[in-house]
Amino acid sequence: MTGYYLIATGDPLFELHRVIRTLKDYNLRNPVSLWYYTRVLFGLEPYGSVWYGFTPLVAIAGTALAWRSHPRAVRLLLCWLVPILLIFEFGNRSPLPLHKNANYLSVIAIPLVLLAAFAIHAALLSPSMGRRRLGAIMLIALALTGPYGAWRLRAAIQNDAALYLTINGVIRQYPDLPVYLPQTRWPLFLSYFVRFDPHEVARWRDEDAITNSEEIEDALVVVHDRYLQADIEGKPRSRGEVHAFLWNPPATWRIVASQPGIPQYNSVRIYRVP
Question: What residues make up the domain containing 172?
Answer without folding.
Answer: 160-273
